[in-house]
Amino acid sequence: MGALLADQGADRSGEDVAVTGEGTSFPPSATMCHKCSTKAVVIMDGCATCLNCGYSKCG
């Protein structure tokens, strides 16, 4: 069964996985989020969006 689990992990290697908490790295261009105080705000689809807490501000 261990080999089966390893194979399932290999199938998921192409997926984007969101990791939060300690040790998380965000793009160098990210800016500070005023809601969660993490440097994780990036522009996505024209909106400033925090990759850590999900806060979004368009405009």
Task: List low-pLDDT spans.
Answer: 3-15
Number of domains: 1
* Strands, count: 4
The spatial strand order of the largest sheet comes to 1-2-3-4
Structural notes for this entry:
With 59 residues, the protein is an alpha+beta fold. It has one domain. It is 17% helix and 25% strand. The protein has one helix and four strands, in the order αββββ. The chain has one helix at 2-11, and strands at residues 31-32, 39-44, 47-50, 56-58. Strands 1-2-3-4 form a four-stranded antiparallel beta sheet, with no helix packed on it. A hairpin with a 5-residue loop joins strand 3 and strand 4. The protein is globular and about 25 Å long. The protein starts with a helix and ends with a strand. 10% of the residues are buried. Residues 3-15 have low confidence and may be disordered.
Secondary-structure blueprint:
Elements: H1 2-11, E1 31-32, E2 39-44, E3 47-50, E4 56-58
Antiparallel strand pairs: 1-2, 2-3, 3-4
What tags apply to this protein structure?
single chain; 59 residues; alpha+beta; 4-stranded antiparallel β-sheet; globular; disordered N terminus
Give a concise summary.
The protein is α+β, with helices and mostly antiparallel strands. Helix content is 17%, strand content 25%.
